[in-house]
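Good morning N.,

You mentioned wanting to compare the apo and holo forms, so I went ahead and generated the holo version with S-adenosylmethionine. This is what I fed in:
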Amino acid sequence: MPPDIAHYEGREQAYVKHRFLAHYIESLVFKIASRRDVVYVDGFSGPWEDRGERFEDTSFGIALQALRKAKETWAGMGRGQRTMTALLVEKNADAHARLQEIIPRYPDIRIRTFNADFVSVVPDLVAAIPADAFAFVLMDPKGWKIDMEALAPLLRHPNSEVVFNFMFTMINWAASMPSPAIQASLEALMPSTDWKVRLDAIRVFPGETKADARKRVLVSSINSAIARIGSYPYVMETPVLFPDKERTYYSLIYATRSTKGVEVFRDCQEAALKTQDRVRADLRSAKRAEATGTMDLFAPVAEKNDFAARWTTEQEAAARRAIVDAVPLSPNSIAYGELWPRILAEHGVRKVRLGRMVAEMKATGELTFLDWGQRKQVPDDGYRLTR
Ligand SMILES: C[S@@+](CC[C@H](N)C(=O)[O-])C[C@H]1O[C@@H](n2cnc3c(N)ncnc32)[C@H](O)[C@@H]1O
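and this is what came out, ligand included:
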């Protein structure tokens, strides 16, 4: 069950975030649970600003539903019982007390809650994750005060993925503050990344705003800190906009070691961006109707919101350039199976679309495939490319 927009009035950005999480966690858990037990770790679980009656508009409520669904599906297919666990950390005592209400609703899932600061319970969380289980870690803090190095034992769990959702505007604001305490906490978030030097020497590229350029530096710094500390080869971001402005509200960062994870992330990202356009268009229509006092039947068309289309076009253009850079000149070559995860990790393109793009580039002579089966529309991983 996707989250219900009715619970998100005035915080539509959280709806987009939760739609993405629901879609992603369902795909991920379903895939993983065929082979492994799953542990969901929510480092900043809330509840926070929830309006549903059963926590269905909270990250942990959404994750627990996905865990239950995967467990039932696999058991129904005769694949045996998987153990599903949720480790929920919440610092605020009142929110933590409310968190207890979820436990009797999910007797089929082992739930442990921690009334603590997330970083301080990392050793307990690590001890609670079986060595061969798959761990999905969600970090969705309000601020930015996370000591990334202290998370290393958790992020390095061999079978794991991480989603880190941060409020871009807040970190961007903090990064412009001279306060030594704020600067030190940002250094703890992005250790050894030269984020400050790079921000101070920022170059704004043609077509970019200054905020875009700052975002490029901050997101890539957080990405590289997670990549290094957790040993993740693929770290990607999807933007979630303010409901009524063309500016980033959240940056949702995703880290994985699996090429399948990269593929699924880009599929979920496209769906989330389309959902976001719809929500923003509906909101603008509703505001206009309220202002004029009439229902505007044509508003969804008139208020067309096409961020997803524009963003995708930009991403595809950048991906094309990156493909040309990554494919070596003849007689050298690269296997498509090596190329596509690298391109998808950097650029917001779905795998099916990338397959068609390289087929188009083959047709125009920009790329040469040394192997291409008859009647094939898109390449196999083993096909070699050269220029
Ligand atoms: C943005 S809210 C989380 C929302 C939730 N992930 C969702 O989507 O439904 C952040 C939560 O983290 C809690 N929190 C703040 N600092 C914390 C810390 N150091 N450790 C654990 N929880 C913390 C806050 O009380 C708040 O409930």
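The CA atoms of residues 151 and 301 lie 46 Å apart.

Happy to go through it together on a call whenever suits you.

Best,
F.
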